Amino acid sequence: MDKLKKCFLFTDEEFIKAKTKTLLNVKCSHCDKIFTQKKKYILDRIRYNTNMFCSIQCSVNSLKAERKECNCFLCGKTFIRKVYEINKAIHNFCSYSCNVTYQNRNKKTGTKISKLEKWIQLELIQIYPDIEFVFNNSQAINAELDIYIPSLNLAFELNGIFHYEPIFGKERLEKTKNTDVRKFATCSEKKIGLCVIDISSQKNFKVVTSHKYLKIICDIINERMAVD
């Protein structure tokens, strides 16, 4: 909490008098840049004791800069890993071999999720720790949504090449397109903003080519949060 207070450039009296949407001066925990933030978002930071960042990049850079020791979930070996990687992983492994060995021992059937989707999911959880994300779930509209944010009534679909070209035949493509249309219609009925992102240009997953898709999602989320 003391570390967070260093980011506040306002007095206790100014904070108490401020309304929920009043903009207050704060300082970025990573680069020391001075910017303004609404009181309601500052309250969230206080509640969860999380740092203040002026941008997504500062948030990511701050997390990537921290490292600490952890133990391999499979073999117990102690090794050094970036804090943000430790936090985002369900289990931490000291090597690719240990990771694969564990996964092979604990395989479960279910929806196939692309490497890009998995990467985006993990990044979003780190960038927006105070937001509840629902991934690859059909509860909201009785059809699977890649990313759903209940608090913002916002959803995202990451459509690969199978949504645009007859890779598995014209009949399969037509069925996929019909499903996409139904999802959009149902979201509209339930007042859920559905954003469809065409990821078909990415033939193979690479972090460097994935950032543009993450940025699109983050820009839309930030815009919706600013309106709310």
Q: How would you characterize the overall build of this protein?
A:
Helix 7 (115-127) crosses helix 9 (207-227). The protein has three domains: 2-63, no CATH class; 66-105, no CATH class; 115-227, Endonuclease, Chain A (3-Layer(aba) Sandwich). Residues 107-111 have low confidence and may be disordered. The strands form three sheets. A four-stranded mixed β-sheet has the order 5-6-7-8, sandwiched between helices. The chain has a two-stranded antiparallel ribbon with strand order 1-2. The longest helix has 21 residues, at 207-227. With 228 residues, it is an alpha+beta fold. It is 44% helix and 18% strand. The radius of gyration is 21 Å and the shape is globular. A hairpin with a 6-residue loop joins strand 3 and strand 4. The protein has nine helices and eight strands. The chain has helices at residues 2-5, 12-17, 39-48, 56-65, 83-88, 96-105, 115-127, 170-189, 207-227; strands at 23-27, 34-38, 67-71, 78-82, 134-137, 145-149, 154-159, 193-198.
What are the SSEs and their pairings?
Layout: H1 2-5, H2 12-17, E1 23-27, E2 34-38, H3 39-48, H4 56-65, E3 67-71, E4 78-82, H5 83-88, H6 96-105, H7 115-127, E5 134-137, E6 145-149, E7 154-159, H8 170-189, E8 193-198, H9 207-227
Parallel strand pairs: 7-8
Antiparallel strand pairs: 1-2, 3-4, 5-6, 6-7
